[in-house]
Amino acid sequence: MDKLRIRGGRRLNGEIAIAGAKNAALPELCAALLTAEPVTLANVPKLHDVQTMLKLLRVMGVATRPSESSEDALVLDAGRIVSREAPYDLVKTMRASILVLGPLLARFGEARVSLPGGCAIGTRPVDQHIKGLQAMGADIVVEHGYIIARAERLKGARITTDMVTVTGTENLLMAATLADGETVLENAAQEPEVPDLAEMLIAMGARIEGHGTSRIRIEGVRELHGVSHRVVPDRIEAGTFLCAVAAAGGDVVLRGARADHLEAVIDKLREAGASIEAGDGWVRVASDGKLRAVSFRTSEYPAFPTDMQAQLMAVDCIGEGSASIAETIFESRFNHIPELMRLGARIEVDGRVALVQGTPRLSGATVMATDLRASAGLVIAGLVADGETIVDRIYHLDRGYDRMEVKLRELGADIERLR
Ligand SMILES: CC(=O)N[C@H]1[C@@H](OP(=O)(O)OP(=O)(O)OC[C@H]2O[C@@H](n3ccc(=O)[nH]c3=O)[C@H](O)[C@@H]2O)O[C@H](CO)[C@@H](O)[C@@H]1O
Ligand SMILES: C=C(OP(=O)(O)O)C(=O)O
């Protein structure tokens, strides 16, 4: 099992490129199921989750090949589908596999998708995906761990989800593009990956309004056509590097990063004492590594993202003063805390709130990654800890970061992968 070895204490300087967003690429790969014509996706990040999604789509008969136009572009062709099933073996390794449900049902009138189940950060049910599709006329049963859905043709409906759900909004949005009549999604997610998907669908011939707001209106069409689309830059990868530089100190430009998608994160890092400036397609962060601990609360976009909670917590651990961190999205997304404490962090947990007492010094140790962003938080802590930190189980990190250690090394970090 691969590990990362980090020798802390180096400043980070230079320039790196931010990859396409995992959480946009995954639904957009699934959107290829909505048309019989080829779809070209550019700026696809090189991640384990993308490989898993491609494997799943290939099992269904989607032909995939690299594009001749660019190294990071892929062509997907769902002209000859042979299976409408997402098997447990693939879904269990990546929850985003649930995103094939809406497109399969809308285009083929049937789908059999394994229930994803929970994961380290929470129980993560998909009841809202199911209820939304039922409201659109689908006949759905859950049997032997599978969602079995049928509908001759989905019908437009007004759907208000019980909570804001990102993949729920995406599944229903994709399904509604081919439904008969108008669908209105109320309480829709506004995370930038949702409007990016909507823009791709519009370029495929879908009729969508209101994406990027909490009310999305979709007028179904008979069929969609091929498209060439560029995946939006990954705001969470960019935010992770902002935190790494803020904590370790240094001066780094993130090429391709979009500051307009990172406002809540940038505000908090400025409050902590980092200096951040931005322009069209770049963000620059400079820090002397002497920060204040800042309190924050995760919530739906545009508020502070849960996917940045572990990384900013790592920054808080070495800040001056104390901070309270409330996690409101997932019920058990604090698994990194005991590992941060192994590095000397001082943290107490009270339900869904963590109280961090900053300390000037962390000391390297062996720690275990428990989920994707927890791993990123531990890497940040390792960059500032004295001596050597080993981060074990980094397969979690590889799910969602495109060669994080290579980029950090380019910036001057002493970090290497042990195989
Ligand atoms: C692939 C992808 O895009 N993943 C992101 C997506 O996950 P994902 O789309 O799975 O997360 P949701 O937005 O759906 O989850 C929000 C909350 O709603 C609950 N819920 C959701 C759906 C449902 O049917 N029933 C239900 O109870 C969840 O358990 C959670 O407590 O948004 C999360 C919240 O920004 C991010 O952390 C993930 O990185
Ligand atoms: C929780 C995450 O991803 P997923 O929804 O794919 O588990 C994440 O990207 O931090």
From TrEMBL:
Domain Enolpyruvate transferase: 7-407
EC numbers, comma separated: 2.5.1.7
Xref: Gene3D superfamilies: Enolpyruvate transferase domain
Protein residues bound to phosphoenolpyruvate: K22, N23
Single GO cellular component term: cytoplasm
Keywords: Cell cycle, Cell division, Cell shape, Cell wall biogenesis/degradation, Cytoplasm, Peptidoglycan synthesis, Pyruvate, Transferase
Modified residues (2-(S-cysteinyl)pyruvic acid O-phosphothioketal): C119
GO terms assigned for molecular function: UDP-N-acetylglucosamine 1-carboxyvinyltransferase activity
Active site annotation, chain numbering: C119
Chief location category: cytoplasm
GO biological process annotation, one example: UDP-N-acetylgalactosamine biosynthetic process
Record function comment: Cell wall formation. Adds enolpyruvyl to UDP-N-acetylglucosamine.
Family: Belongs to the EPSP synthase family. MurA subfamily.
Protein's recorded name: UDP-N-acetylglucosamine 1-carboxyvinyltransferase
Gene that encodes it: murA
